[in-house]
Amino acid sequence: QVQLVESGGGLVQPGGSLTLSCAASGSISRINVMGWYRQLPGKQRELVATVTNGANTNYADSVKGRFNISRDTDKNTVALQMNNLKPEDTAVYYCNLRIWVPVLGAKDFWGKGTLVTVSS
User: Fold this and answer.
1) Taking Cα atoms as reference points, which of 11, 14, 93 lies closest to residue 60?
2) What is the per-residue pLDDT across 16-34, written as a single tens digit (0 to 9) for each?
């Protein structure tokens, strides 16, 4: 099976920076997408940023220009550099790995989540 372990959450002041990291282990196909999602209490989980194994990236409009996602495909790690953080970025951030299984299609794996709190 696949396991995702996140690290790097915490408390940061508005305007500050934080980096989240995630390491994936297990049986991982070469063609995959890694990314970060976040969830506020009582709300649906939303996409923050994703990056393919070909290094193509996708960002939510709310984080464009502030966040940067990067990955090491050989090590199966992904990082999210978050700059100019705002109170509305406060959420639990989840690492995601999406692979494609023949016949079954896309399959998602999730980390346990790490809390990011932006507050003065």
Assistant:
1) 93
2) 999 999 999 988 777 789 9
Nearest to 39 by CA among 109, 98, 93: 93
- Gap between the Cα atoms of 95 and 50, Å rounded: 10
CA dist 24 and 112 (Å) reads 12
Q: Which two tokens stand for residue 44?
A: 């649906």
Radius of gyration of the chain (CA): 14
Residue with tokens 């970025």, as numbered in its chain:
89
Give first-to-last CA distance, the chain, whole Å: 40
H/E run at residue 6: strand 3-7
For 88, the 3-state DSSP assignment is: helix
Give the phi and the psi of residue 61 in degrees, each rounded to 5. Answer: -55, -35
Ranges 10-14, 25-29, 47-51: which has the least confidence: 25-29
Distance CA 55, CA 58 (A): 10
The residues facing 5 across adjacent strands are 23
